[in-house]
Amino acid sequence: EIGMGLTGFGVFFLFFGMILFFDKALLAIGNVLFVAGLSFVIGLERTFRFFFQRHKMKATGFFLGGVVIVLIGWPLIGMILEIYGFFLLFRGFFPVVVGFIRRVPVLGYLLNLPGISSLVDKVGESNNMV
């Protein structure tokens, strides 16, 4: 419960920090809360194993490097690196997420619109499972 709360607040602060033109303080708080919440949700050992697998080292470098750069004070560059690392780290989960969202009544309809459907199909066909 604590981990889900921390992760939720972390995502909120990251989103709010980006809306407010990449506010350094909000992004830094969001990063710390997100990583701490993830550690609480899945445990410290599993978090460490997830981030430091051999085939995910590049993604981990971008993600954690982006966190450090945001904490140093360059929020735009740090967030670009973080987003890229996030997509590399969690791309194995995207097919599951797309499949779930397609079953939600209103969102499923939106994802099946002609222009959006082809983009979502490309995201959802990832073969890299975690």
Automatic annotation (TrEMBL):
<comment type="function">
    <text>May be involved in fusion of ER-derived transport vesicles with the Golgi complex.</text>
</comment>
<keyword id="KW-0812">Transmembrane</keyword>
<dbReference type="InterPro" id="IPR007305">
    <property type="entry name" value="Vesicle_transpt_Got1/SFT2"/>
</dbReference>
<dbReference type="GO" id="GO:0005829">
    <property type="term" value="C:cytosol"/>
</dbReference>
<dbReference type="GO" id="GO:0000139">
    <property type="term" value="C:Golgi membrane"/>
</dbReference>
<feature type="transmembrane region" description="Helical">
    <location>
        <begin position="28"/>
        <end position="48"/>
    </location>
</feature>
<dbReference type="GO" id="GO:0042147">
    <property type="term" value="P:retrograde transport, endosome to Golgi"/>
</dbReference>
<feature type="transmembrane region" description="Helical">
    <location>
        <begin position="60"/>
        <end position="77"/>
    </location>
</feature>
<dbReference type="GO" id="GO:0006888">
    <property type="term" value="P:endoplasmic reticulum to Golgi vesicle-mediated transport"/>
</dbReference>
<protein>
    <submittedName>
        <fullName>GOT1B protein</fullName>
    </submittedName>
</protein>
<keyword id="KW-1133">Transmembrane helix</keyword>
<feature type="transmembrane region" description="Helical">
    <location>
        <begin position="5"/>
        <end position="22"/>
    </location>
</feature>
<dbReference type="GO" id="GO:0005783">
    <property type="term" value="C:endoplasmic reticulum"/>
</dbReference>
<dbReference type="InterPro" id="IPR045176">
    <property type="entry name" value="Got1"/>
</dbReference>
<keyword id="KW-0333">Golgi apparatus</keyword>
<keyword id="KW-0472">Membrane</keyword>
<comment type="similarity">
    <text>Belongs to the GOT1 family.</text>
</comment>
<dbReference type="Pfam" id="PF04178">
    <property type="entry name" value="Got1"/>
</dbReference>
